[in-house]
Design goal:
This protein has three helices and four strands; from the N terminus they run βαββααβ. It has 112 residues and is α+β, with helices and mostly antiparallel strands. It has a single domain, classed as 2-Layer Sandwich (Alpha-Beta Plaits).
């Protein structure tokens, strides 16, 4: 098996509460059933606090980082029938950017 692989989405939710609820009640439990799924992290920040001059207006954005056991497992996510049921995410948030990345280094404490 290869190195772990992350799918990263930069999203702008229309309704944060509804977005969180869908992630918690539908998306995350569905991911947990998929072969090779490792974890999901959600990072939130206020755009008005960001250092980039292009990010203004007080909007909120998230980075949704989904980690897979390998690039192959991440690729299989795209073909998994359950993924088709996740379309509601596109109704709850605009996707500003999306991509994948090989995890080169994980500095988590041993055993975590």
């Amino acid at each position: 098996m290869g190195k772990q692989y992350a799918l990263v989405a930069r999203v702008r939710p229309h309704d944060e509460e509804a977005y969180h609820r869908y992630l918690r009640e539908t998306y995350y439990p569905g991911l947990c059933t998929m072969p090779g799924f490792v974890s999901m992290r959600i990072l939130r920040w206020s755009i008005s606090d960001a250092p980039s001059s292009e990010m203004v207006g007080g909007r909120v954005e998230y980075l949704r980082i989904t980690t897979w056991a390998s690039r192959e497992a991440a690729d299989a996510y795209y073909r998994h029938p359950l993924r088709a049921t996740f379309g509601k995410l596109l109704d709850l948030a605009d996707v500003a950017a999306y991509g994948g990345a090989e995890i080169v280094m994980d500095l988590s404490p041993a055993g975590s």
